[in-house]
Every structure is written in C-alpha cells, then in structure tokens.
Amino acid sequence: METRPLPHAPADHPPIRSGKVGVLLANLGTPEGTSYWPMRRYLNEFLSDRRVIDYSPFVWQPLLQGVILSTRPSKSGKAYASIWNKEANESPLATITKAQTAAMAARMQARYGDRVMVDYAMRYGKPSTLDRVREMQAAGCERILFFPLYPQYAGATTATANDQFFRGLMKLKWQPASRTVAPYFEDPRYIDALAASVERAYAAAEVEPDILVCSYHGLPKRYLMEGDPYHCQCRKTTRLLRERLGWSEDRITTTFQSRFGPEEWLKPYTVEEVARLAEAGKRNIAVIAPAFSADCIETLEEINEEIRESFEEAGGERFAYIPCLNDDAAHLDALAEIVAENLSGWI
Fold this sequence. Notes:
The protein is α/β, with parallel strands linked by helices. The chain has eleven helices and ten strands. Among the domains are: 34-81, no CATH class; 188-322, 3-Layer(aba) Sandwich (Rossmann fold).
C-alpha cells in the first residue's frame, strides 16, 4: 500500500492511500451469541431479506415480528449452542471463515506480495459487508474482487450477497472498481477437492458406505420455476463428482435439506430420503454437503444430528458425515486459482 498526495492537489490536501487490490470473501453469516436477543437480531435480518423470503412484507412481516421471532430464536439458539465454539465464543462458521481468509491471504501474499488485501464479510451479522467495503477503500483498495463462497448460484445466497456488496459501494463517495466471482459448481479444481474428501472418508471407513448422499441446502420449488439455476447446478455438481470418482449412478444421490414454511421445496428432502434409504436396505450411508464451503448449523446440527436421527430411527446402522471442505489445502488452492483468474488484468 502506498500513501501519496494527489497530483496537482494543494499542499494541505489529505494523503490518499492507493495501489492495492482487495479480495473480499463472503459467507452467509452468524449470530453473535446463542441467547434470545442475539439470535433474534440475526434471524430478523436473515428472514427479512426479500431474496430469502419473497412474500409481500405486508403479509410476511407481521408473522415474522410476531409468532416467528417470539419462538424461533430460543429454538435456534439451542441448536447453535450444541455446536458453538465455546473457546472462541463464536459459531463454527465464523471460526472456519477466519481460517479460510488467513489461508487465502497467505496464498495471495506468496503470489502478489503486499499488493492484495484479503478479508471476509458476512451477509447477515458481523463483520458486515458495508464495514468491510469501507475498510478496504480506506486502506487503499482501488479495485475489489467480491467472492461469495457458494459453489452453486442461488438468488437466496449468491445474489443477496452481491446485492449487499453493491449496497456497500453505494455508500461510498469514491467507489473502487469492482468484480464479482461467478459460481464455481463445475470447476474441475473444486470437483477434485470434493472427490479427494470423499476418497479419504471412504478409505477411513470400517465398512464402505452403500451410497453417498449429496445434501444441498433447499429452496422453494417455485424459485426454480421462476428461473433460479440452483437446482440444475446442484445436479451437475453431483454428476461431475460421480464421474470424477468413477462411480455408477446407483452409488450417489442428490437431496435437499432445510425446508421452511408451507410451500413445496426442491425434492427429495434429505431428512425423508435417508429414512427411505434405510428402509430400502441401505443401512450404511455417507452424507456430504457440496453447497456449503464451510461447516455451519445446517451441516453440524441439521445433518449430523437431525438427519442422522431420521436415518437411525428408520433402521440405519452406520451414518458418516463427510465434513465440508473448510480450510482444506486443496480447497484453498482451488479458490486461490479462481481468485487469480478473476484478478486478471488488475494485477
């Protein structure tokens, strides 16, 4: 970073920091604590996002501010408490995202020296996207690459993260040039990292699983019919993973989790499908979550507790959860290459 006066500026003009490129990683977000009020603040911000819940605010907000936010924070708080990183007093998503950011910063430092600044932001909660954009601009970032850490595009994930990034730019008097990273659901390096994690898990298993369940976060089916490409991209990720592993079609399946509300969501539902598999004789399964770049409440609590319980109650015997790629070296190598390609022409 360089601090220099502006050309032709008066002698008393404040110095301007410049000459850096920012890489801003973005994830969903996290509550600041598991008690009622931190959970309520987080859920209110999350569930008020029209990209997530697109019902009319005149219908939705009275429900949200009434019965939902009166009861759901306590229930969600208990779920978060079961996975909370008590040593750091933060959610696993926060811990992992910090580790990913540090690993990415080290790779950018090795490649570009001090010319690239790497940081992270959360769509909901802290650190906010707006705060991070301001900090990068103040630190001399004349260009910012915004990278939503969602392999598959969805309006409720990638698009709302991008929306918030551009809202942050709207607040600045002097905007940096900006780019966003496209979804990487079919990138061979991402698929290779996924496949390597499956191969490690299978090699360590006492008994090889009968089937691998690829469980993606869910969306209302209506979103698919309105043009959201998420469902198709999930299916393609599963197919490419199967092909990379050299498996037949009967060894892997695609499901969707985390339903909310009365609408029909993308099917099959993971919680129901694992029970059906157990009843059909698949007593030994593995589950992986390719839509999540970092383990979080949906994987550590929903998959590893609720979905596991559904499988075991239906007669399942062995349930193996394969962790997200998190800060795995192959994962960060893949993401760093994607970043480098998107910085082309900037540095």
